[in-house]
Structures are given as C-alpha cells and as structure tokens.
Amino acid sequence: MIEFNIGDPAAYGARVAVAATTLAGCDLLYFGVVRRLFGSLWWYPPLSGARSSRAYVVTAILFCAVIFGIVASLFETTTIGEAASVGVLLGILVFGVFNACALVLADEWTMTTAVLDLLYGVGTYAAASAAIWHLV
After folding, report:
1. What percentage of the chain has pLDDT greater than the value 70?
2. Counting beta carbons within 10 angstroms of the beta carbon of residue 86, is it exposed (0 to 12), middle (13 to 18) or buried (19 or more)?
C-alpha cells in the first residue's frame, strides 16, 4: 500500500537526499556523456544564449532534483514495484506537461524530442523512486 506521509523527519530528509542525489546524478551523467558521444546529433535542440551555459543547466538539474526529492519522498511504499510506479506516475506528469508546453512554445521542439524526453524522464524518475525504496 502506498501512503502519503512525511513520517519521521530524519527519515524523510534521508529519502529527499537519496532521491535528489540519484536524479541529479542520472541527469548530470546523461547530459555529460550523451552530449559528448552524440553532440548536436542528439534529439535535443541546441540551447541559445545564456541557457547554453553549464551553470544554467546544472542549476536547472539541481532544482528539478530537489523538487522531485521533496515530492517523491512523501510517498512511503512497501515494495520496489510500488516505488517504481510512483516514479513512473511523477515522470509522466512532469515530463508530459513539460513536453506538451515545449511542443506548443518552441519551434525547435519536435514530436520525436518530446517522446524521447518523456521516455527518459519516466525511466529516470522510476529509477530514482526505486533508489529511495532500496536505500532508505
């Protein structure tokens, strides 16, 4: 059964830390390795101006990781499958809304970009949620 409870503040803080660290690590690895391997051939359109700086991208990754950690850690699950399900649902919600907006607002954002980004987000959120369950 999935519960929505902060429970013990120290345990909640540990879950937030594990979730944020796991997600930030996945994103930093993903953006670092994938960009080096595939460069501009990858599905993401190039970022313009200040948005292409490392500081901007790292700040965005850390911000999203902390927000995910705060929200995902509210769910207390009893199995790794439940934990992954929470991650999948949060990934669909977050990346679905983001990609729908990007499709409407950014000319460079294609349907291929949106679908692949959604799949990446759902998988990463599921892995981070499973890490919370497994490590804490």
Report:
1. 80
2. buried
N residues, the chain: 136
Q: List the chain residues with pLDDT less than 50.
A: none
Question: Is residue 77 within 8 Å of residue 83, measured between CB atoms?
Answer: yes
Closest CA to 136 of 18, 9, 6, 7: 18
Instruction: Name the burial class of residue 17, with classes exposed (0-12), middle (13-18) and buried (19+) by CB atoms within 10 angstroms of its CB.
Output: middle
DSSP string computed for 68-110:
HHHHHTTEE-SSHHHHHHHHHHHHHHHHHHHHHHHHHH-TT--
CA 41, 42, 43, 46 dihedral sign is negative
Q: Which amino acid is at 119?
A: L
